């Protein structure tokens, strides 16, 4: 038999039909819904008089548009101050009730950012096709799923038919060998990858992340990496199944038990690329070359090691690059040649589907512990990714560490990642953010985002400016604490 | 869905790469539960000098004079000319909804983000891919000619300028047919309902754990 990649295997096992025109009908196992990209899809179903194809594949939760303030959350949907937001969240509840779709409502245990919720509940499992009306759906690929974002018309299409009309992507492998150093996190690894291949480097491809760095990485770390595949242009990012994948899944709410579990595991173990499988593009990085990363511009590929200088337009090799750097620096209010580790920060955001899981919370708390937020910082938001993460963090006392340091401990949601709610940057403010997009205006009109890891963001909160977190860690390792 | 066969219209330029979906339609407008009405907020942050909020009347808002599409000569443009990686970022279908509602029927660029490209076809917006060199030619021609129009023909897969130049573009046949006939994709898929059911039966035998857990 022909050697196949993980992506090939996932694709083949979900093929319903290959149409004459070159497109294929692909079966969808899990569909995750949220309030922003679903209302028009439900409306479409209603207008056409259609019902969902089946109910037990869908799972929903509100996340993008909800308040993260405790005082507003306790009042439920009625407590959402913005009327248009309130209607949208209410519409999700109504649609799920009407059609009979399982929803974790705003204040229920289980609610969270779609891409935190799915895996932690075991709603996404290895070998599945997973879609959601959100481009960061690739996150679920950390569990060896074929997972990608879809638009609202496709949300309606999946609801109505349990299938998507798809065209097969090409295969790309990003291999990172070696062992990462102290203070280098999964976020730094993925930012370094994006820096190398660019924001369109993975266009039209499904990326498999392989090599010892990912084998050594926790499942949550792999989620951080797969999450940002889309920032490298790839709709799909994934990591093959190994022992970590299986022990991560074990015992979660929707994961099969008993005999079914054993059956599932024996199948899941086949979800790896064959040794001589063909990849259209192969990219190699080495762990030794990766140190903490920070974005300085308005696209995730505008990234550099924290020890570097902000690039100068005049050093760019062509006119287009020069123009791009000029425009970015102008928006960011930065001069070429400025040391990245001297850029002042106004606000800090630790959260988003990239970095809001329990390990991220621990990583940030480790840096924040016993320290204080710098006086120049206006706000530090710590937003756990889900009710379960929040409960776990509180059980470990992490909330107390953050609060003692002068940070705000919030309710789960997308928050300042896209600033659809009240959590946003003011005009011209710089933010050390653990989210995934530093586009113009993403975190608030005129806001200036610097993407980095939770450890780096916590360190920036303490220092008042971007700083190499490794300085903090060598300090603390003298007291015997390692990150 | 609206059918698309051929379109002639005024070209509006946005000479930059990586125009992302946050620029095309900023997030505050995603709170709407409707599909229509996004046009006045297309490129909101670039287009206006003040901050826009949903539900606002945009007619009296201060326009940003430096934003090309605000120039009188580009008023009424229905073909958007842009640089590579257009539509990168989120999966929001509000981006093609906003383009369409504004009056853009066609986008021409050297490349697109995958999800955005796909979303366009579902909404009667044709994303045309020309080479970087061809796009540069169009930018040059447009700069020198007020009222610059192009003819876009989906049947022949061509873009024709008044100087008689013809550029061909490629696209897959399924998308082309759907757009040409304005087909309901869901209806098309449901013709294969029997195949889907058959797949489910076999899948349930092979991977029974996939089903039934979520209730
Ligand atoms: S956290 Fe940000 S990127 Fe993730 S789903 Fe929410 S808005 Fe999208």
List the helices and strands and how they pair.
The complex is a heterodimer of chains A (483) and B (215).
Chain A: H1 6-12, E1 15-18, E2 24-27, E3 30-33, H2 39-48, E4 58-60, H3 70-73, H4 83-99, E5 102-103, H5 114-121, E6 129-132, E7 146-149, H6 152-161, E8 163-166, E9 170-177, H7 186-197, E10 205-210, H8 212-216, H9 219-227, E11 236-238, H10 243-249, H11 258-268, E12 281-286, E13 293-295, E14 303-305, H12 319-332, E15 347-350, H13 358-368, E16 379-382, H14 387-395, H15 398-405, E17 408-409, E18 430-433, E19 448-451, H16 454-463, H17 469-477
Parallel strand pairs in A: 3-4, 3-6, 4-5, 6-7, 9-10, 9-12, 10-11, 15-16, 15-18, 16-17, 18-19
Antiparallel strand pairs in A: 1-2, 2-8, 13-14
Helix pairs in contact in A: 2-6, 7-9, 13-15, 13-16
Chain B: E1 6-14, H1 21-24, H2 44-47, E2 79-82, H3 94-102, E3 106-109, H4 114-121, E4 126-129, H5 132-144, E5 149-153, E6 158-161, E7 166-168, H6 173-181, H7 185-190, H8 193-206
Parallel strand pairs in B: 1-2, 2-3, 3-4
Antiparallel strand pairs in B: 1-5, 5-6, 6-7
Bound molecules: iron/sulfur cluster (SF4).
């Amino acid at each position: 038999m022909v050697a196949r990649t993980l992506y090939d295997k996932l694709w083949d096992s979900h093929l319903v039909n290959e149409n004459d025109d070159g497109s294929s009908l692909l079966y969808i196992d899990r569909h995750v819904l949220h309030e922003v990209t679903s209302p028009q899809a439900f409306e479409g179903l209603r207008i056409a008089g259609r019902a969902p194809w089946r109910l037990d594949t869908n799972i929903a939760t509100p996340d993008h548009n909800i308040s993260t303030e405790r005082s507003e959350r306790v009042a439920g949907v009625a407590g959402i101050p913005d009327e248009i937001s309130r209607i949208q969240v209410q519409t999700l509840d109504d649609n799920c009730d009407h059609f009979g779709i399982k929803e974790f409502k705003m204040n229920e245990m289980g609610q969270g950012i779609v891409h935190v919720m799915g895996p932690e509940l075991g709603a996404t499992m290895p070998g599945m096709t997973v879609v959601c009306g959100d481009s960061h759906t690739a996150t679920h690929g950390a569990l060896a799923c074929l997972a990608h974002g879809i638009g609202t018309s496709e949300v309606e299409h999946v609801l109505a038919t349990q299938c998507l009309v798809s065209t097969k992507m090409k295969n790309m492998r990003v291999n990172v060998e070696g062992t990462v150093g102290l203070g280098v996190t999964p976020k730094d690894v993925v930012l370094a990858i994006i820096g190398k291949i660019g924001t369109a480097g993975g266009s039209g491809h499904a990326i498999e992340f392989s090599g010892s760095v990912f084998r050594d990485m926790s499942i949550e770390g792999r989620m951080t990496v797969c999450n940002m595949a889309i920032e490298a242009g790839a709709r799909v990012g994934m990591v093959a199944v190994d022992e970590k994948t299986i022990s991560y899944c074990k015992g979660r709410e929707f994961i099969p038990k008993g005999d079914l579990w054993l059956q599932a595991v024996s199948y899941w173990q086949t979800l790896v690329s064959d040794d001589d499988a063909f990849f259209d593009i192969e990219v190699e990085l080495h762990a030794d070359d990766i140190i903490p990363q920070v974005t300085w511009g308005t696209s995730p590929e505008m990234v550099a090691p924290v020890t570097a200088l902000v690039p100068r337009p005049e050093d760019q090799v062509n006119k287009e690059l020069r123009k791009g750097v000029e425009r970015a620096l102008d928006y960011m209010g930065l001069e070429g040649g400025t040391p990245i580790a001297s850029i002042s920060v106004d606000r800090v955001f630790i959260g988003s589907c990239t970095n809001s899981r329990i390990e991220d919370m621990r990583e940030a708390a480790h840096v924040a512990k016993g320290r204080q937020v710098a006086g120049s910082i206006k706000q530090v938001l710590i937003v756990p990714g889900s009710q379960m993460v929040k409960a776990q963090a509180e059980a470990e006392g992490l909330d107390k560490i953050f609060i003692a340091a002068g940070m705000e401990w919030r309710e789960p949601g997308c928050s300042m990642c896209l600033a659809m709610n009240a959590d946003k940057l003011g005009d011209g403010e710089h933010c050390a953010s653990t989210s995934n997009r530093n586009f113009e205006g993403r975190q608030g009109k005129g806001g200036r985002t610097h993407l980095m890891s939770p450890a780096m963001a916590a360190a920036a909160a303490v220092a008042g400016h971007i700083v190499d977190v490794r300085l903090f860690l060598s300090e603390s390792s003298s007291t015997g604490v390692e990150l | 869905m609206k059918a698309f066969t051929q379109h002639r219209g005024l070209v509006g330029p946005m000479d930059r790469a990586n125009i992302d979906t946050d620029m095309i339609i900023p997030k505050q407008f995603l709170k709407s539960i409707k599909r229509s009405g996004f046009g006045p907020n297309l490129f909101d942050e670039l287009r206006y000098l003040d901050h826009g909020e949903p539900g606002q009347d945009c007619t009296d808002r201060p326009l940003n004079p430096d934003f090309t599409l605000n120039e009188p000569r580009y008023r009424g443009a229905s073909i958007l000319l842009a640089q590579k990686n257009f539509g990168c970022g989120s999966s929001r279908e509000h981006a093609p909804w906003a383009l369409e509602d504004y009056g853009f029927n066609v986008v021409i660029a050297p490349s697109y983000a995958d999800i955005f490209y796909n979303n366009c076809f579902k909404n009667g917006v044709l994303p045309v891919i020309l080479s970087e060199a061809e796009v540069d030619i169009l930018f040059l021609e447009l700069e020198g000619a007020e009222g610059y129009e192009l003819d876009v023909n989906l049947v022949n897969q061509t873009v024709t300028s008044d100087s008689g130049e013809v550029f061909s573009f490629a696209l897959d046949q399924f998308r082309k047919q759907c757009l040409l006939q304005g087909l309901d994709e869901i209806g098309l898929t449901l013709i294969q309902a029997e195949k889907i059911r058959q797949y489910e039966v076999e899948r349930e035998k092979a991977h029974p754990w996939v089903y039934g857990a979520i209730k």
